[in-house]
Design brief:
The structure is a homodimer. By secondary structure, the first copy, chain A, is an alpha+beta fold. In chain A, 26% of the residues lie in helices and 21% in strands. Chain A has a single domain, classed as Glutaredoxin (3-Layer(aba) Sandwich). Chain A contains two helices and five strands. A five-stranded mixed β-sheet of chain A has the order 2-1-3-4-5, with helices on one face. In chain A, a hairpin with a 3-residue loop joins β3 and β4. The radius of gyration of chain A is 14 Å and the shape is globular. At the A-B interface, β2 of A face β2 of B. Chains A, B: This is (2Fe-2S) ferredoxin domain-containing protein. Chains A, B: It comes from Siculibacillus lacustris.
């Protein structure tokens, strides 16, 4: 969709904070260790001191087996994150320099 | 940012489910009546039966005084929603026909 409406954010990060109990058949990003990763993500984004980069916590983004999952719009790039080093690389590369981290990007199938 | 990565969703709706207690100085989308609106939004999106349209619940999107707030990516269009008729119009127009509802679109300032 073409639009003349200005983008509020250059990068708007949505990170899945869904947690489900251990043994739940769908799993969840929380169960896969998202909590410390998103804490670091929030701190690293604050560290950018860029008012045009924002982070929002979400409920389930779907694709629960692929988690911990985040998606950055308007680019629409989904990342599966495993380690704090992954977080740091996404923040420095995608959010800082505008370069997608190809090795962590996934294209989930609805 | 240019990217060759395919978009997972044609329209990805993020609706703020934040609630704060009555009298809280920031207010919240919940306090401004978001709950029945987002319930209707979810039902209307299901009614589209379009796997390329998704809705995700979020925590605070910021701009709390403007709520109930939603943002649709990748277009990056923010909507302040007051009534169920507003919801129906956004779903039919923006999500269904790809036409922005100008009268409900806002551009919050970070």
């Amino acid at each position: 969709m073409q639009t003349d409406i200005p983008q509020v954010y250059r990068h708007h990060v949505f990170a899945c904070f869904q947690s489900r109990p251990a043994g739940h058949p769908r799993g969840s990003c929380g169960q896969q260790g998202s909590e410390p990763l998103w804490k670091r993500l929030g701190q690293a984004i604050e560290g950018l001191r860029d008012p045009r980069v924002a982070m929002t916590a979400t409920g389930c983004l779907g694709f629960c087996r692929a988690g911990p999952l985040m998606v950055i719009y308007p680019a629409g790039v989904w990342y599966a994150v495993r380690t704090e080093a992954d977080v740091d690389e996404i923040v420095a590369s995608h959010l800082g320099r505008g370069e997608i981290v190809e090795r962590l990007a996934i294209v989930p199938q609805p």
